[in-house]
């Protein structure tokens, strides 16, 4: 055992030395160019410094942003600019929308998991998917169908959690919510009863785990300078990612094949309520562009939007209610307050904690800082929710009433409350997500109360694209007496 510890320590030390040397080299390259130029954002290190803070990355970004609302990290080829300035965010996401894209750097990192899906592409492919999705999300058929599915699965969730309450057993609330929302998105999105919540679908559970692991492993690429070498060599995190991607691909391609066969047998049926069926019908008009691989990418992009946004937000919502039992009781008595509480949860724990774009040409941000062509410009939703300059001195407090005026919900500018993105790429599923979260939270709070198994332990996040809790949310559920 001792020899393995020595090897591990030596390897870790060597890697740290290599990264330090690499960081110094980057600084040396930039010295004399723009590193000391006040017209560019102040430098706070290199992109590889994020490795040192990876497990608490968003809190590290928050600490820096409180001192420097716009700062940059230096990379081998370009800078990464981070901002919490609302003016900059509107500039990048709306005013100069056509001058900023996902960029080749981001697409290269994302492609293995998200492929050519809506979150990873620009141009015609993005517009095509956006147009189809925009139409689907606006239809009454989808709205009515989704509400029925959400109510059915919320009732199933209440039954499962009530079983834990009666038995006096601890449950992982995040896991339950992930299963519930996955069942819902598969039914609404793909017309499939996955049955993850009741545990009867081994394939569904395996798929969910593979997808969540892939989410984290792909995000790791942003701070791993050797990920391409590891992918070629099929070692370490990239070997794990390859295995998980195969599980995902096998599952999704089987789903597409099954769905095609079902549609072929239901040609005369008008009951094509799910999104995949509608995309499959659209693909028949243009089979060369919308092949099975393209449909696979569309499915995974819709899935992360439908499952992770709702499940992660609901998990943090119940965590905050456990930390604030008086608010929990108030919401149970006055269900209309749930919108404010859910929005306040998203302010503090946004489903996507950080996102950004790539500059297609040199630019000047509204705060006066310059951006070079190829630089990434990232807005930090997690940090923004904690900025006193944006939300006041009580910014870090959970206060649902900040969204209510005379008991009526008052929305904020999407560039200030950035949880659902903003501009032309604003989240199409915002209302869809709120419907699901309201139905699930109201059903659970109607019949149950929740408390943490350990009030002294602060729940933390796992650093990945979406803000999952690290280690789950372990709670005790208590049945309400009527």
Automatic annotation (TrEMBL):
InterPro entries registered for this protein in UniProt: Cyt_P450 (IPR001128), Cyt_P450_CS (IPR017972), Cyt_P450_E_grp-I (IPR002401), Cyt_P450_sf (IPR036396)
Record keyword Metal-binding present: yes
GO biological process: lipid metabolic process
UniProt keyword terms in alphabetical order: Heme, Iron, Metal-binding, Monooxygenase, Oxidoreductase
Cytoplasm is among the record's keywords: no
Gene3D superfamilies the UniProt entry points to: Cytochrome P450 (1.10.630.10)
Chain sites annotated for binding heme: 427
GO terms for MF: heme binding; iron ion binding; monooxygenase activity; oxidoreductase activity, acting on paired donors, with incorporation or reduction of molecular oxygen
Pfam entry (one): p450
Cofactor: heme
Matches recorded under PROSITE patterns: CYTOCHROME_P450
Family designation: Belongs to the cytochrome P450 family.
Stated name of the protein: Cytochrome P450
Organism name: Citrus x changshan-huyou
Organism lineage string: Eukaryota, Viridiplantae, Streptophyta, Embryophyta, Tracheophyta
């Amino acid at each position: 055992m001792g020899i393995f510890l020595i090897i591990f320590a030596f390897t870790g030390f060597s890697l740290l030395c290599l990264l330090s040397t690499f960081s110094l080299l980057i600084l040396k390259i930039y010295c004399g160019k723009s590193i000391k130029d006040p017209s560019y954002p102040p430098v706070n290190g290199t992109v590889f410094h994020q490795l040192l803070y990876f497990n608490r990355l968003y809190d590290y970004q928050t600490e820096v942003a409180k001192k420097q609302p716009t700062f940059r990290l230096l990379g081998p080829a370009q800078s990464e600019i981070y901002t919490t300035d609302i003016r900059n965010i509107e500039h990048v996401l709306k005013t100069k929308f056509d001058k900023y894209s996902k960029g080749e750097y981001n697409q290269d990192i994302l492609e293995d998991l998200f492929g050519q899906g809506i979150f990873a592409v620009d141009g015609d492919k993005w517009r095509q998917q956006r147009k189809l999705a925009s139409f689907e999300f606006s239809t009454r058929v989808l709205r009515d169908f989704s509400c029925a599915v959400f109510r059915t699965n919320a009732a199933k969730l209440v039954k499962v959690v009530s079983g834990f309450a009666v038995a006096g057993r601890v449950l992982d609330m995040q896991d339950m919510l992930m299963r519930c929302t996955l069942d819902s998105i598969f039914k609404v999105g793909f017309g499939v009863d996955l049955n993850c919540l009741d545990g009867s679908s081994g394939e569904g559970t395996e798929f969910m785990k593979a997808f969540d692991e892939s989410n984290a492993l792909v995000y790791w690429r942003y701070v791993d300078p050797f990920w391409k070498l590891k992918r070629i060599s099929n070692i370490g995190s990239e070997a794990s990612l390859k295995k998980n991607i195969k599980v995902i691909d096998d599952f999704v391609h089987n789903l597409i094949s099954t769905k095609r066969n079902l549609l072929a047998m239901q040609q005369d049926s008008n009951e094509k309520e799910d999104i995949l069926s509608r995309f499959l019908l659209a693909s028949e008009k243009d089979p060369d562009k919308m092949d099975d691989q393209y449909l696979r990418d569309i499915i995974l992009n819709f899935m992360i939007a439908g499952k992770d946004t709702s499940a992660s937000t609901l998990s943090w919502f119940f965590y905050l209610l456990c930390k604030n039992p008086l608010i929990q009781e108030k919401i149970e008595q006055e269900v209309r307050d749930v919108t404010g509480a859910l929005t306040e949860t998203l302010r503090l724990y946004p489903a996507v904690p950080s996102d950004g774009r790539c500059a297609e040409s040199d630019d000047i941000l509204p705060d006066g800082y310059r951006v070079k062509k190829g630089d990434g410009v990232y807005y930090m939703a997690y940090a923004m929710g904690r900025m006193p300059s944006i939300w006041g001195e009580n910014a870090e407090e959970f206060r649902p009433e900040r969204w209510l005026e005379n008991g009526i919900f008052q929305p904020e500018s999407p560039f200030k409350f950035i949880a659902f993105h903003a501009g032309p790429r604003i989240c199409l599923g915002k209302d869809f997500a709120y419907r699901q979260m309201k139905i699930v939270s109201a059903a659970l709070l109607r019949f149950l109360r929740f408390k943490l198994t350990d009030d002294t332990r602060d729940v933390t996040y796992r650093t990945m694209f979406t803000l999952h809790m690290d280690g789950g949310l372990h709670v005790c559920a208590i049945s309400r007496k009527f």
